[in-house]
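Lab notebook: predicted structure, single chain.

Context: the supervisor wants predicted structures on file for every construct in the current expression panel, including those that have not yet been purified. This is the next one on the list. No modifications to the sequence; it matches the entry in the shared construct table.
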Amino acid sequence: IRFTNQTNILNKNNILNIGYKFFKGNTNRLQQGTGTKDENYSLFIEKYYSKDFKLNTIVNAFYVENAFFIMPELKIVPGIRYENIHSGVSGYLNYHNGSTVQLTRIRNVLLYGIGTEWKYLPQHSLILNYTRNFRPVLYAELIPSATTDIIDPELKDISGGVSEITLIGKLFQGGIYYNLSAFYMEYKDKIGTIIKEGKNFRTNIGTAINKGLEALIDIYLLKSLGIFTKNYDFNLYYSGILQNFKYTEWNNPATIGTYQDLKGKAVEYAPEYIHRTGVKFTSRFIDVSYQKQIYGDVFTDAMNTELPNTSATIGKIKGYSVDDINIALKAHRYFTLSFSLNNIFDVKYATRRAGGYPGPGLIPGNGRNWLASISLNL
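Prediction complete. Output recorded below exactly as produced.
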């Protein structure tokens, strides 16, 4: 439900938005059922599922925001949001050993933020934003993915804030578009994984700060040179991020023992850089695009363990780069032939480590693969 009202105060336009959102979700998750054992194929499950539990969520959310148009070029938008969240999980996680779960949580969360946009030139804007954020504990974080994983029974929600400054604009007759941002993100009670007695232990391990730069640059070469045509175009683009995502505070849970301080350690699966760049040629008859993606190294646990353990569930993952190409041939007004080749050079790389299925161990990325298709346009 949303209500919008436009008013005029001191000869300045204001737009007020008030809203309410209701959500109710119910999921019954059945896993690891035992199938028949004879030679006749059947989808019938014998006796019981090893995992059988219900997930329930009810959310009531209210928000208010007002856009103040101070000048034609300047807009300020403050807002608040209140959420009442009821969530619960019940059932058994392991039928064989009688491992059950019965958990209900009620949260009352107040969030707020403010945004400002200043159009200092007709096609250029400066945007400033600050918001308080909140992320509840996910059901996936409460349920171990493998029998070797341990979940902290006192796991808490994540909270924090985000500040960012952004420059957006167009140059050379709109032929060059840019979006440049600097950001600062705080995560309190960050959920992470450390090793306890040789096993993965998921808990609130401390406060993490992510600060960095993001960029998106899109160049339409012909338009930027003052050549305007619908018959063909040549496009260059780049998007990427440079970030420093580190732990700044260590909760040192009493159950952990004498583990070293995590201050200054990199957050799990947070590469220092991600780059995507490519070229694209479009015409009335054929489209061709080539893209290269580059990812930095990541650590898979909060302790930043360099070498893998015996089960390969922790340890550093090296960065990698992948190249892709896509071709679309417009053979007829009704037909389009498409071909894509991903991971052209068949690079061997890994994306994560898992404690359970399809692990435990290092999970590889996709090798070289291709796809061809024919589209009928009616």
